[in-house]
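Shipment paperwork, digital attachment
Item: protein structure file
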Amino acid sequence: MLLVVLFTVSACADDQETVILRVGEHPFRVELAVTDEERQRGLMFRRELEPDAGMLFVFEESALRTFWMKDTPLSLSIAYIDARGRILEIHDMEPHSLTPVRSRYPARYALEVNQGRFRELGIRPGDRIDLDALPRALRR
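Attachment content:
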């Protein structure tokens, strides 16, 4: 099976790198949030997100994670993902909420997409993301 990996520069205002990331069998175009600054900013202030777009938060190591929606006007779903690419859990998050959304298990990655999109596509805990689409340094 031949995997084609596409890397492109995002058209968003801050020109974050994007990658086509397969979640199960479904492709998402995701921005990569790798630095502390990128992870802290996340999808704040975004008013819209394409149906198959999202943001992948990449951390140096697996740990319990906490996200919230301060200054984020979108309704999002978040998937906490282990170092091997397995989705551990999925949560819905409400716009502008300061309520912490904590992972129950150590996660190396977190993927935010439009709220309900995982459910619409039948994506659930136990499914995998294709880590081969990431630059090697981000999947060590």
